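It is worth pausing here to work through a concrete case rather than discussing structure prediction in the abstract. The textbook approach is simple: state the sequence, then state the predicted structure, then interpret. We follow exactly that order.
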Amino acid sequence: MVNLKFLQRCFMFLFVGTSMCVLQACSDDDEESGGSLNTDVGEVVAGSGEKLLSAGDYNFYYSEDGKIKYATDDWTLYEFSSNQLICYEDYDYGETDKSVTSLSYNGEGYISKMHLSEVWDEEGERGSYSSTSNLAYDGEGHLTKVTVKYSGEYAYDGETERESGTSTINLTWDDGCLVKYEYVASDNEGWTNKETATFDYEDGEYANEHKQYATFADDLFGDEATVCAYIGLFGKGPDYLPAKVELEEVEIYDGEEEYSYDYTAYYAYSFNDDGTIRRVNSDYFTYGTIEEQGDIDDYQAKVTRTEKSQKRNFVFGSRLKNHKR
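Step two, the predicted structure:
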């Protein structure tokens, strides 16, 4: 029987404003405040008319009204609408896994809630999955907390497996900088995962003039969250960019430590004349007008848009080991 352990890492998260009023934690008031997908999403320098077109392996595409329409990486197409994010994951064997996540926004246009609910019945396999993520921000527009609840069921060959769990992400900010990230996830089978990251800014060596998220977010949070963070859907980035991030991870099952790991990632930056990020290590960032963006058709042609729904949601997991020394 297929193990649903990967569901435990479900989430959504991190990523990307204008001048703001005081933001409230995600709540019914936020969702009733008329929040929506803004036309200035991806515009790093306010009023410039230029959007973020690429960041490392990610590419971004916008509709004529300025709203984000698509993003891509090497294997996934992300399609945005006013209240949904649809992910098409392109596999080598010719099929495409599709997931649809509903989105709610607060009054500043930041994502405040994400919900995924799926049911499938194929070739003797039946299952269902539901996940809800709530996001909170501070008065300066920084993401401070993400809480996730999920449940899943999988039936095959007369056996049924059920799992449920929660995860919480707390982000601590001090004087405009993200100084600590804490992630705790647990399920109904006695499994717990904990991660803690601390950030070193080298006495403010890398000023982040336009409050962008950069490669460190990709390494911490994973693909889907990074896409959102880069274009401003998860609030403001830090006032300075970290030169070093240290992360510790531990997995516990039934009270016994099964795995632990720690690693350090290092980052170096260069900037354009207008203060936007030009390069982070080997990742280049590019900007331009909507007329200058690439052609999405080339990527869409690779995606076989089957209706094969999968129990798949935003994956939150650290990947700092990609930059360790």
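Step three, interpretation. The helical segments are 28-31, 215-221, 223-230, 297-300. The two ends are 39 Å apart (CA to CA).
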